[in-house]
């Protein structure tokens, strides 16, 4: 089925289950600690052996010797896997550097061996006996120092120029009466998910099954097969529960490959959980950016020129952090230039982390807008409102639905924005300086092909199977809601099986496309099931109503269960509307802070997000998504930073003790408001994703609130207290 709006279904005109706050159906399993995570799949692999990963102690160079003899002879050891003794491996499509390194070493903590033993403790002890000698090469670890060698890189690899430009930016900027020209530094950040990379691998002949933790099942299956030079049909990936991903688990990582190689070597199922100290340098991170923003306006506040250039680094062959993304869409202006530069570096591979690009991009653009408002003597909410655009700047392409102005107005009203003193450093309560800040939020709303299988069971219930994942986002629940809605059964009669590559291929969880796309695929399968049921009953399933466990057409009425068992598959592809419309989500973010006048300590007092993201399928879990994202954005603004050792080339603070993320005491009462919008273009449910919108803007609102409180503008994240003294 192709969704090519504005056709589609009137099934969701008056939904009974969709759009209602619904507790997560996996909630009891999670809250009681019984949800089976990958490392705890005692049900699938009897008597597993344990793998322990050895990471490279240098960032760049060669392994000149890797002596595993003592390790192999250590008690309980079943085998030691290295690049030298493993089968030939092919690099997958989704990782830039080999997951098992040697003799070339391309980053610190790149895996160089897996020790497999009867127990975890034996594997760990033996890993200490692996002796590696290296020839250390020189590496590129300092982003600012690489600026000169960075290449321009565009959004569209086919485009003639990597520069996205419109009008005459230089002339317009030079002649404008009011302008801002600033640089912003955002450090590398870590996904820092609770559940580490973890896999149990088992071979049956030439067939491999991995129980793992991964956001994109089909990508993982194909990439694992490619890496091992085997047919993808012989690989099964199962990932029903995921303890956080944030983009770090979009791709195949070392735990999966090493567990597979270890299981083959030991002739036993092998389980590998990446040791916490390896998590950060072995895997991916959000690359640091140095962003140059130039804004120019007329005296009435109308933007005449927007310039945003972003420098980031990555392993050769890697991608840039697309920090200029929102700057192409958020505000109108006739003259514009956005440009990324990408430097080749030898730090671990950078890759997607929640709202890749836009999350750090807002930390620059939306602070520059605050600076411009001050230079204009204008209210920062009003400045954003008068520069709203309903078309993609420079084109006549419309947004499918865009209510940024409503987000800002409604947010200002609810937050009490009119009480803000526009002059900084004026409001004081004892030792605390008080300030308020605002930022707009933008995040794209992509959709992806998604399929599902649904079955009417003999008992009249509905089963749904799809390889869609739930990374803590609530996929189980919105998928159950969708099937309940379309099949006319209560939510409790729907069971949902996710994360298994034996099921039809879904959109997976990434880029905030999961919710809208995967439910559309389930909708398509349910439409086919209604047809199949109609056929069994001798009526037209497209014309019948499915309500309260009954199928009704004209004066005929059947019990749904009498038609079972019957199953159907369906898939949704998203059609040509993507060429005709820009489909995005929007938000207004507000924040109030108190800053200690003597110590510079920032205390967050209030946060509000007003979100425009189409129909909200489950307001309860959507709210959880947004407040979680706001916490991450507060972390980015105030404390998160992967500190680079520029001599030896690694992230120094490489565990959860040293990589600071917010704790409960850092986070105040948060409020989330969803505008009651329906996007007529995007999906049958008129829904868009929201999981990444919430991390786009709150950090900038916090930075702007700190400025309003103190009169000190810091453009070097995180905004730690030392920078305010
Ligand atoms: Mo998201 S960074 O695509 O998981």
TrEMBL record:
- Gene Ontology terms for molecular function: carboxylate reductase activity
Domain named Aldehyde oxidase/xanthine dehydrogenase a/b hammerhead is located at 32-138
Query: SUPFAM superfamilies per the record?
Result: CO dehydrogenase molybdoprotein N-domain-like (SSF54665), Molybdenum cofactor-binding domain (SSF56003)
Question: Pfam families in the record, alphabetically?
Answer: Ald_Xan_dh_C (PF01315), MoCoBD_1 (PF02738), MoCoBD_2 (PF20256)
Key word Oxidoreductase present? yes
* Keywords from the named record: Oxidoreductase
Region annotation Disordered: where it falls in the sequence:
1-25
Q: Which InterPro entries match?
A: Ald_Oxase/Xan_DH_a/b, Ald_Oxase/Xan_DH_a/b_sf, Ald_Oxase/xanthine_DH-like, AldOxase/xan_DH_MoCoBD1, AldOxase/xan_DH_MoCoBD2, AldOxase/xan_DH_Mopterin-bd_sf, PaoC-like
What EC number(s) does the entry state?
Answer: 1.2.99.6
Broad EC category? oxidoreductase
NCBIfam families annotated for this entry? Answer: peri_hyde_PaoC (NF041671)
Q: What is this protein called?
A: Aldehyde oxidoreductase molybdenum-binding subunit PaoC
Q: Which organism is it from?
A: Sphingosinicella rhizophila
